[in-house]
Design a protein that fits this description.
The chain is mostly helical and about 110 residues long. The chain folds into two domains: about 55 residues; about 55 residues. Helix 1 packs antiparallel against helix 2, helix 2 packs across helix 3 and helix 4 runs antiparallel to helix 5. The model has no long low-confidence stretch (mean pLDDT about 95). Keywords: Membrane, Transmembrane, Transmembrane helix.
């Protein structure tokens, strides 16, 4: 799931990069910062997905933190009129967090 999220965020980062190059920007520094943040999030999700696939116990906590970060993002999307996207984003964050905390994951990572 984390690697799938990484691909989605990577595509968003690519679109942001294209928008930075093609569209007139008012604040180039903010545009580049947002693009860099998206690329960094994609890289972190990809790396954490790989670490969890190799059953590295230290990857679970940062993965949960990244998933819980989807809650305020989704909430602000709902407040901004994008409830069709914010609601599923929040559900994704909670769902993946539940999977990361589930008994099979806990056993696979050797916490029991």
């Amino acid at each position: 799931m984390l690697r799938g999220e990484a691909v989605a965020v990577g595509l968003i980062a690519g679109w942001l990069l294209w928008a930075n190059l093609a569209a007139p920007t008012v604040d180039l520094a903010s545009a580049l910062l947002l693009t860099g943040f998206a690329a960094g999030a994609a890289a972190a999700l990809w790396a954490l997905g790989g670490a969890l696939a190799r059953r590295r116990t230290g990857a679970r906590a940062p993965s949960i933190v990244l998933q819980l970060m989807l809650l305020p993002i989704g909430w602000f999307m709902i407040q901004g009129g994008l409830g069709w996207l914010g609601g599923p984003l929040m559900a994704l964050g909670l769902g993946v967090t539940a999977l990361l905390l589930s008994t099979p994951t806990t056993r696979a990572l050797g916490f029991e």
